[in-house]
Amino acid sequence: MGRYLAMLLGKGTLDGTRILSEASVAQLFEPGSVTTASMPEMGVTGVPTGYGMGWAINEIDGRTIIHHGGDAIVMGSWTALDTAANVAASVFYGGPTLDPYRFPSKIYVVNNLLHLARGEPVTSFGLPKEGDPTINDYTLPAALRSRYVGEYRSTGGQLVEVTESGEGPLHARLTGGDLRMDYELDFASEASAVFRNVSGGAVVRFLVTPSGLVTGIAGGLPGGPFRKRSADELSRVQTVRAPAGGLAFQLPVGWTVSWTGERFVASGPEGSRVRLEGGITTTAWTELAGQARRAMPEGDRALAAERTETVGRFAWQELVWRDGPRSDRRQRFLALAEEAGRSFSLEVFAPQGGLTPVLREVVVPLMTSLELRTVLGGR
């Protein structure tokens, strides 16, 4: 990045070699539009901002600064150039977005690196001028705390688990794929709370019935809204995890599962003729579906139905067909989903006429609760 910035400061040349024309570099920094920026968490209110080809152009502390930055959940950066002083700086860090009301913002750090490079004192640009608007002084009555504890799941497959430990704040964990976010709950009222962590505060609304029953969470969190699962509902399911920890899903209580690495076979209660097979696979969908079609009885091949649908966080490719002797026909279902370079396949074997209830009662809940996690170091 230092060499890239040196090339830009050199108006397109680096180590005597021209990379871009001087006119091209000038065009990068020429505002194509001008708007008004307001970021109170960075002390910016009503500041005219030009936008060039990927670069913001601002008058900051009496000089023109060309800059850009951002966050991507687990990393952040900011880069700034002072072309008049022929100096540039970048800041990179590996970590979550940081709460700008508790930690210096990236633009504050980069802007002051430019000041220091010119022998100038640091300034407060990039620091909030007002307090955190999500702070409140409400205290949730102790008698109400337990009503919020439980598991909340969204139709997109994300999970929020609210827990209570001692007399401190309630805690929440949001998960979905490789996403892990932990919060302390700061209530503003019985129906409003701030999910607060190192990244700042997410304002959410708890859905509460007139009788005081908490039924869900809306707003503020990725993947929402979330529905709270009842104690009766949770008592009828079990969470199943692969031994290596990179795969998890839910099945009804009474189902048994055996594992071979990250592949499994699941069987229904005793006497059931339903079986599930699946797990992590490296076989592409075209090959999986092709293998299934080649194995079908010729008369059933034309009746096989292929489709794509979204369940939970995943877009599933699916194939439905039937096979077996006419005296013992059975229905088959094959599906595949992908996330972050990992593929999960699922095959269902059900007696003739039994596939629909299995899909509704077993497969869709499995798909909705499916977690494909990156496993580091074999753990």
Describe this structure in words.
Strand 10 and strand 11 form a beta hairpin. By secondary structure, the chain is an alpha+beta fold. The longest helix is centred in the C-terminal third of the chain and has 15 residues. The protein contains 7 helices and 26 strands. The chain is flat and about 85 Å long. The strands form 5 sheets. It has an 8-stranded antiparallel β-barrel. The model has no long low-confidence stretch (mean pLDDT about 90). The two termini are about 35 Å apart.
Shape category? flat
Largest sheet composition: 8 strands, antiparallel, barrel
Mean pLDDT reading? 91
Give the strand line-up of the largest sheet: 9-10-11-12-13-14-15-16
Which class do the helix and strand fractions yield?
A: alpha+beta
Taking the alpha carbons of the first and last residues, their distance comes to 34 Å
Helix content: 10-25%
Low-confidence stretches: none
Write down the Rg.
Answer: 28 Å
The total of beta strands comes to: 26
Helical run tally: 7
* Binned strand content: 35-45%
Describe the structure in brief.
This protein is α+β, with helices and mostly antiparallel strands and 379 residues long. It has 7 helices and 26 strands.
SSE blueprint:
Blueprint: H1 2-9, E1 13-14, E2 17-18, H2 22-28, E3 33-39, E4 44-51, E5 56-60, E6 63-71, E7 75-82, E8 87-94, H3 106-117, E9 150-154, E10 159-163, E11 171-176, E12 179-189, E13 192-197, E14 200-208, E15 214-218, E16 226-228, H4 231-235, E17 237-241, E18 247-252, E19 256-260, E20 263-267, E21 275-281, H5 285-295, H6 298-301, E22 305-311, E23 314-323, E24 330-339, E25 342-351, H7 355-369, E26 371-372
